[in-house]
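Reviewers of the previous submission asked for a worked example of the structure-prediction workflow described in the proposal, so we include one complete record here. The input consisted solely of the amino acid sequence. No template or homolog information was supplied to the procedure at any stage.
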Amino acid sequence: MLYHLFEALKEFDIPGQGLMTYLSFRAMMASVTAMLISLVIGKKIIRWLQRKQIGEEIRDLGLEGQLQKKGTPTMGGIIIFIAVLVAVLLFADLTNIYTIILIIATVWFAAIGFTDDYIKVFRHNKEGLSEKGKLISQVVFGLGLGLTVCFSPDIVVREKVQVAAEEIQAGKPASQSLDARSEFRTDDGEWTKEDVVKSTKTTLPFIKNHEFDYAWLSPFNGELGWYCKWAIYVLMIVFVITACSNGTNLTDGMDGLTTGTSTIVVAVLGIFAYLSGNIINAEYLNIMYIPGTGEIGVFMAAFAGALIGFLWHNSYPAQVFMGDTGSLMIGGVIGVCAILIRKELLLPVLCGVFLVETLSVMIQRSWFKFTKKKYGEGRRVFKMTPLHHHFQKEGIPAVITKPEKALPEAKIVVRFWIVEIILAVLTVALLKVR
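From that input alone, the workflow returned the following structure tokens.
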């Protein structure tokens, strides 16, 4: 709103008005605002949740300090939700297609998580929303996003774009680069709109120009091949959305674990979005240039700020849990952002913690069922899943027995943060590997 207000009043030449034209300034303001909102309203919402006795019901799994968490307020994802939306509404361009999609994604996945938490807390049903219900909701959104990416004229990439040398030599600020224009200079030196394309290309390290086209997976050519490549792309979008949302949900099991690791992922994606939306930076780094994605950087800055503010209350020992309201929302937004900036194939590395947590559950269940059918009793690969609980358990027979002694929860969380930082640095470094 402030962005649009200053745009409407630009003819009055208000002091400092020009700052709102800089993505970097709006991103910083959005981040700080979201952080402060999380800190301030967090206390009030926690007190309200305590008065309403909206506490987490803890099952005794034999984990150290587990029963002490009984009664800790849950549904704290509401704090993140409010902080993000307020900051984005204030500082983002609300006419930008990417901003609109991310706002819808935030509301959609927060609603799924809120429904799940509501059933658990108020209906006293420990199962919450059924797995089928969650999956259908995630798939429906994924299909909607896929069709939007396919048919929206505002979601495009530009190819073979070259920055005018005279503008670079003139020292033109990056924020005033060519992404504000409707025409672009190509290799022959002419301004043209022909570089605007609907593309199924995405970013993938180790190959030429870091670009992978889903059309390469199509077994057909011609018109049928065109439909096939978009169908493959839409299916990939659905898979990414579902995997990210469930991955963060499974990781949410220790104080500050999901919040801290998600903050790192969100920050990296926000940087990628800012760079991809700036023609000078995109050309210098040899990454795909996607007009308008700079606004995603503003959104993700607000999201990171909200997560940091929430971490103040969620760090060990937690005063509030985010619940599915927060974890499903975080995963959904991460997946959507990665797709919009064409970085979804980097997620296995960037979101390595979420991936390993999910794989640990899948491996454990599969091995338990297989051994039960073969030997008459189920056996474990890990002492307990998701993986972070494996490090809390001791004295349980499993294929993997290390560590032999249980580790304190705070130590496990910090070590997972460190691993995620390493993965984030590795993800950025991969963009320079050709």
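Strands lie at 157-158, 184-185, 191-192, 196-197, 201-203, 211-213. We consider this example representative of the routine output the project will generate in years two and three.
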